[in-house]
Amino acid sequence: MKQRASLIGMIIIFISLIILGRLFYLQIIDKEYKDLAYKNAVKKEYVIPERGFIYDRNGKLLVSNLSVYDVMVIPKMLKTFDTIEFLSYTNITKETLKKQLKKAKKYSWKLPSLVISKRYKDEIALLQEKIYKFPGFFIQRRAIRKYHTNHAANVLGFIREVNEKEIKKDPFYLQGDLIGKAGVEKSYEKELRGKKGVKYFLTDKFNRKTGKYNHGKNDTLAKVGKDLRLTIDIDLQAFGDSLMKGKRGAIIAIEPSSGEILALVTAPTYTPSYLSGRNSSKNFNKLFRDKINKPLLDRGLQGEYPPGSPFKLLNGLIGLQEGVIDLRTSYVCNHGFYYGRNGHMYCHCGANGRKVKLPWAITKSCNTYFSNTYLNIINKYNTPQEGIDAWKNHLSKFGLGQYLHIDLPVGKKGLIPDSKFYDRYYPSHRWQASYTTSNGIGQGEVLTTPIQLANITAAIANKGFYYTPHIIKNIDEGKETINPLFKKKHSTDIEKKYYDYIIDGMAQVYKTGTAKYSRLKDMELCGKTGTSENKTRINGKLVKLPDHSIFIAFGPKDNPKIAVAVFIENGGFGATIAAPIATLMIDKYVNKRVSRPDLLNKMLHTDLRTVYQLKNYEKQ
Amino acid sequence: MRNSRKVNIFDFDWLSTLIYTLLVLIGIVSIYSATYSAQDANVLQTYYGKQALWFSFSFVLILIVGLVNIRFIKNNASLFYLIGIFLLIAVLVFGVNINGNRSWFRIGNFGLQPAEFAKLTTILGLAKLLTEPDFDLKKIKYIFQAGLLILVPVLLVLMQPDLGSAIIFLSLFIVLYREGMHAYFYLFSLLIASLFILTIYFGQNKLLISVGLIFILVNAASYFIFKTKIFLKTGAILFISVLSILATSIVFNKVLKPHQRNRIEIVLNKKHDDKGTGYNLKQALIAIGTGGLHGKGILKGTQTQGDYIPEQHTDWILSVIGEQWGFIGTMLVVLLYTFLLLRLIYLAERQKQKFSRILGYGVVSVLFFHYALNMLMVLGLFPTIGIPLAFLSYGGSSLWAFTLMLFIFLKFDAHRIEDW
Question: Which pLDDT does position B2 carry in this prediction?
């Protein structure tokens, strides 16, 4: 019987070895279960950092954050609750609650759905205290943007929830995250958004948090978004907004010595807070659908218009550089310029058959003089093709016909035609310089955006160079470098001395020329009016619309602090609306004052809405 | 020769007592780890507090065992057996219904599981029967008597129904083997059990063909190579095999309940059901697997603390040990058990009295089945049945029953030299 005892003992040892082998396999060799355990029990939760603040150039806070609270529901966890009590803590109706709950149940039984969105702290405080009475409901905090200004919506932009495409493009984003969709919110999204933190939690089988995973050693802290300081002077921007009341167009102000954009006014516009807060989606749709006023269009960056007379300055500069004109060159102006067969361009410089020389031509904006100059530039070369390409080459040095690479997400190239453009237009290639005469006075095929106009004004003020206009002054109080492009000097290929001639002419514009009624007593300004023709097709017929009112200016003459371009759609003669606005802006910025209250008063009461209504009516 | 050596009432085998204490303590710590909650106010309301309390009561039981005269136990063994049977019948009538099982008496706040104590009384009854004069396990009559003695409690617990305990009672056939029952009985049992598994795994038809082929091959081989005819002997085996194969599908499809079928199929890898019947097993394997070499430490298991495994403080306690102490911990428990069982065999074999030897083997058999089947179940090598891990799993009845069982035998062992 002793063998039987041994056999029993051996069977016990054998079974123990099987158990040990299995344990060894599960615990030491097989890795599968470790992964499964991790997936089972460890849940990631992201901590969304606070978005960076935005300041103006003087350190005034423009955008910060505000906590709002959403009431969420998980239908699965709902129990019967006192609806009347619930409603008494909120300001929604029974029908809304019913509707939202129905929607939530339809969406998902287990996942949270929104019931009440974006309530402020005091609105939700009561419910927060009593939320324990309503199982299934919970309150979730989230941040929205708080605006400390009613201006610069086009610059600041707005944030919205990310869409599928953005999530796919950048793994940083998860469903429900916010992303900058316009303005600096978009162009500096990476700096503003900060770095998400990750918290690892242990969860039980019901997915409830039971504690930190690994004592929080794997957790990473969220890093607050970086603050931006913009080049915008918010007071100047606000002043610009007030001047643009009732008008359509843009005011761009640039500091010539740095390329910093001081004001980027577009009109009509909206208050930034309109696209934040409870009704943001509804409001956005309202703005988006307004195809007549187009408040979401940044006319300063996206509006392409014929530049009109300010363009003559460039033709003057190119003419001087190309040697086709000098200060002694004169053309006879007899109420206009005759070219080609039956080609006539009216001129109201008032020379009445006298000879016109350079500074005076600028002062009085003589079409004849600059048409001749333009034709001489083109005709200097053997073929008009060569000529126009050389001309375009000079212009591109001013940043025209191309993107300026401004640090805002929208922009337009404008148009400077070249030989290929006309070769396409005239398939025989047998076109002549005179066909394009209108380019000489900023009409014709040439298109520029207001910011490009402001930029050439800065280049003229600097006498031959410009810095890429930009909106960022510093990031994170200068701890992060800004785009080196903004520190790079872009030189034009016009000699400095020629600028002096042009600037003298521009100074005369204010003294005796087209803008003499907008001058300042104690500061010498330089400017150039523009009146650009525009036409539209109504019922198939080309109809002439009221001219666009344009003015570019900088000041003071000897030490330019600000360069301004003003563009008023259908504002008429450049001197009537655009010039006073430019003067007021310069005075406001340089001298911190309004020394021409008469002009201010006039501008505040100039309302072009009747003109626009007419235009829209005609369009219909 | 009468030995006059005075036996101390605490003169229990020290090695077994040490292993017993270690296992119970490991159990209490594991239960603590599995059920601890910061909200626990009253320790005695918690599982670990209660288990510690049961453990301290166990000392009282050990003390009582130490004081009781072994002759009293031996002389009244039949009575104890009958009390056990009586309790198993009573629980079917007066027991409380928990999840469809009538396994518990409820006395106030206190639950008592008679099946746990019936294991002890059945061992005592078996020892009594086998030490009757003229009893001979070579005779069919006595085999039937012994078999009946074991099968009565088996049938009674099956009526609760408690399949786990029923299988534990069957372990007592190991005692019969030691006491000289024919080995064929066990070989045939093994054959039937193997055929049962193989039939479920491969299907009835395949198995019938295989068995037939083996029969022909074996006979042909023996005839042509050894020149012997073994047709009759192998024919009998063939007959039993075919019968058990045919019975398999009836038992499997008609007798077993759907969840039991599922559990068998999951172990045989024929079915994957991680969300339903297989959920417990899957989560237990995850917990054990994630423990690695040295585990995550007490209260640090993600699986255990996440409460992923229902009943992790009772039948699935090995998963807690596996996650918190890793392979080192599980190996320690396996080794402790193995040593305890081997030690008990050694003690049983050194008995002069047949009664105490049978008692020893009874304890070995019951503990072995509890240990082996529970672990194999948690490790996914045996279908899930409700068998607690003796000494470690939470539960007052089972701890006390095992304590009594072990120390009654150790008491007999302490008095082995006495001629009684």
Answer: 44
Distance between A5 CA and the closest CA of chain B, angstroms: 7
Is residue B394 left, alpha or beta, with left meaning phi > 0 and alpha meaning psi from -120 to 50? beta
Angle at A464 between CA A462 and CA A465, to 5 degrees: 75
Residues of B in contact with A215 (CB under 8 A): none
Question: Whole-angstrom Cα distance, residue A588 to residue A580?
Answer: 12
H helices present in A268-309, as ranges? 280-289, 299-302
Instruction: Note the pLDDT of residue A221.
Output: 85
Q: Residue A218 falls within a domain, yes or no?
A: no
Query: pLDDT for A60-81, tens place per residue?
Result: 999 999 888 888 888 877 888 8
Structure-model confidence comparison of residues A613 and A64, the more confident one:
A64
Contact A32 B307 (CB under 8 A): no
- Across residues A548-557, what is the average pLDDT? 92
Residues of chain B neighbouring A26 (CB-CB closer than 8 A): 285, 288-289, 322, 379
- Chain B: give the shortest CA distance to residue A151, in Å: 53
Q: Best interface-test mutation with B: which of A2, A26, A31, A206 has the largest number of B CBs within 10 A?
A: A26
pTM: 0.66
To 10 degrees, the CA torsion angle through A329, A332, A333, A338? -110
- Write out the residues of chain A at the interface with chain B, using a CB-CB cutoff of 8 A: 1-2, 4-5, 8-9, 12-13, 15-16, 18-20, 22-24, 26-28, 30, 32-34, 36-38, 40-42, 202-205, 210-211, 213
With CB atoms and an 8 Å threshold, state whether A24 touches B376: no
Nearest CB to A24; choose among B286, B327, B338: B327
Considering the domain boundaries, does residue A165 fall inside one?
A: no
Sign of CA dihedral A500, A504, A506, A510: positive
- At A247-303, the pLDDT tens digits run 999 999 999 999 999 999 998 999 998 888 778 888 888 888 888 888 899 999 998
> Residue A565 has what pLDDT?
96
Domain with residue A247: its CATH number is 3.40.710.10
Cβ pair A34:B307 closer than 8 A: no
Using CB atoms, which residue from B287, B291, B376 is nearest to A19? B376
Count of domains observed in chain A: 1
> How many A-B residue pairs are in contact by the CB < 8 A criterion?
118
Q: Tell me the mean pLDDT in the region A427-444.
A: 85
User: Mind giving me the DSSP string for A134-151?
Assistant: STTEEEEEEEEEEES-SS
Q: Give the range of the structural domain holding residue A378, as residue numbers without chain letter.
A: 234-284+300-619
- For residues B383-394, give the mean pLDDT: 91
Residue A81 lies in a domain: no
pLDDT tens profile B268-298: 877 777 777 778 888 888 888 888 898 888 8
Contact (CB, 8 A) for B146 and B176: yes
The answer to whether position A460 is within a domain reads yes
Name the residue in chain A with its Cα closest to that of B173: A8
Q: What's the rounded Cα separation, in Å, for the pair A353 and B171?
A: 130
Lowest-confidence region among A606-610, B59-63, B324-328: A606-610
Whether B177 and A32 lie within 8 Å, measured CB to CB: no
Q: How far apart are CA B323 and CA B105, in angstroms?
A: 34
